[in-house]
Amino acid sequence: MPELTLIETRNLVKRYGDKMAVKNVSLEVHKGEVFGFLGPNGAGKTTTIKMIVGLLQPTSGTVKVAGYDVQTQPLLAKASSGYVPDTPNLYAKLTGRELLHFVGDLYDLDRKQVAQRTDELLRMFDLTTAADDTVDSYSHGMQQKASLASALMHDPKVLVLDEPTVGLDPKSARLIKDILRQMAERGAAVFLSTHILEIAERMCDRIGIINKGDLVAVGTMNELRSLGKAGEVSLEDIFLGLTGGAEEAEIAEILK
Ligand SMILES: Nc1ncnc2c1ncn2[C@@H]1O[C@H](COP(=O)(O)OP(=O)(O)O)[C@@H](O)[C@H]1O
Ligand SMILES: [Mg+2]
Description:
Blueprint: E1 5-16, E2 19-30, E3 34-38, H1 45-52, E4 60-65, E5 68-69, H2 74-79, E6 81-84, H3 96-106, H4 111-124, H5 140-152, E7 158-162, H6 170-185, E8 189-194, H7 197-203, E9 206-211, E10 214-219, H8 221-225, H9 235-243, H10 248-255
Parallel strand pairs: 3-8, 3-9, 6-7, 7-8
Antiparallel strand pairs: 1-2, 1-4, 4-5, 9-10
Helix pairs in contact: 3-4, 3-5
């Protein structure tokens, strides 16, 4: 059976004035896969993600989510995906439970489904005891979990997360990693961005490396490693080599 492609970008370009933030990015993410979008700050990760979830109009190129063109079939595409932004942007005066009910209503779930799903998600994210506190009283980690819970409310086929583990304690980071893996095992496609190599390595089946708007390499960890010469080059060297990281000599120069 052919792999089912759930995210497809073709020659995706975003220009801000003279600046090309994203240059001809073509990639595919399949059902059952956790895909890591790895690159240094300013590489174009957030810009690409916003085009995938339909928040930003591409300058040119196309994006399909669950088979729907994000520009010509925006409602169907958006109904198929969940999005967790880099900083939680929640309705601060709602309680956690009210937030999930509200999101369930947005997606037109019926009342019973909303109540049931809310309880399940609160339990899954360890938010049950805080369920009736307002979101603005939550810690960053709790807000991040509430944000992911609301993205999962309609059980999306595609889940897109922008730097999901930034600022999380190890327990929450582990919980999120486990939940993303389970989503993939149940047939979703998960797309997450990170600037941390180790996170991509630990959490993802395949990795795309983006630098200055260019997708410079895509593959499994082993495939990326084989880009290094004779196997003695670490992935860190490959990542830094591809993205032009500072060499040891340069660091020594700066620190002296
Ligand atoms: N609204 C904007 N206007 C102008 N330039 C932008 C805007 N948003 C992002 N950029 C620029 O586009 C590039 C990519 O940004 P971004 O996608 O946020 O990178 P990343 O998420 O990988 O850190 C950066 O150089 C950034 O300064
Ligand atoms: Mg970003």
